[in-house]
């Protein structure tokens, strides 16, 4: 369940009702809520108390408001505040792109866990004991022209292939397809040299991706970089 920590009684009531209903279900295992912070952090804490009272098992807190750009740092102080007042485990979300980020966020906020979205799209082995990418890689190595040793550590292309095949079988909105692939092949953060890994696409190929108008165009573009296996 995802909520935005709005302050209206209607939102709180609907969220609490949904949590209670899910927990009473015969299929119930755990129920969690993911929220963004409110400009008024007191309203965020009020929302947290409400879902706790409804029986939520844990809460994931994205350290940005709905209006905050992803390029702006996540508000770790806000996440720390929620953790200090919460009675259930708190998971931090926002700006998790490396194991070092995980350790820093846990250290600064005291949270019980972290969640990554864009970071895992870029590096599928982010949370693995032995990350899939341990050194910087060039574009050519990432698409299959590097050493065998490099390729043995890099499964990003296989993950991209799996995603594309899943979309073929179970289509999702095209805008979402392009967004996910753009992160998987090399985000702006990596393209500008701030990332620790190489990219699957060059800047030119990523720009061409953003110009695609259909999923077939996307497949043609990706096949032009390296043929995608169909399975």
Automatic annotation (TrEMBL):
> Gene3D superfamilies from the entry?
Aldolase class I
Region Disordered: start-end pairs: 131-154
Domain DUS-like FMN-binding span(s) in chain numbering: 30-143
Extract the Pfam families matched here.
Dus
Q: Which GO terms describe its molecular function?
A: tRNA dihydrouridine synthase activity
What name does this protein carry?
Answer: DUS-like FMN-binding domain-containing protein
Q: What species is this protein from?
A: Rhynchosporium agropyri
């Amino acid at each position: 369940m995802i909520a935005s920590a709005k302050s209206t009684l209607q939102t709180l009531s609907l969220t609490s009702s949904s949590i209670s209903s899910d927990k009473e279900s015969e299929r119930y295992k755990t129920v969690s809520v993911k929220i963004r912070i409110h400009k008024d952090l007191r309203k965020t804490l009020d929302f947290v108390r409400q879902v706790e009272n409804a029986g939520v098992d844990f809460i994931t807190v994205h350290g940005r408001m709905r209006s905050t750009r992803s390029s702006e740092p996540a508000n770790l102080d806000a996440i720390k505040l929620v953790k200090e007042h919460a009675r259930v485990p708190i998971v931090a979300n926002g700006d998790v792109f490396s194991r070092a980020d995980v350790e820093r966020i846990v250290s600064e906020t005291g949270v019980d866990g972290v969640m990554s979205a864009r970071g895992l799209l870029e590096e599928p082995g982010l949370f693995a004991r032995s990350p899939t990418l341990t050194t910087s890689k060039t574009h050519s190595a990432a698409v299959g022209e590097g050493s065998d040793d490099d390729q043995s550590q890099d499964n990003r292309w296989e993950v991209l292939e799996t995603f594309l095949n899943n979309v073929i079988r179970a289509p999702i909105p095209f805008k979402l397809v392009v967004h996910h692939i753009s992160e998987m092949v090399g985000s702006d953060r990596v393209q500008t040299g701030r990332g620790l890994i190489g990219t699957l696409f060059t800047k030119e190929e990523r720009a061409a991706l953003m110009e695609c108008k259909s999923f077939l165009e996307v497949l043609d573009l990706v096949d032009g970089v390296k043929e995608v296996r169909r399975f």
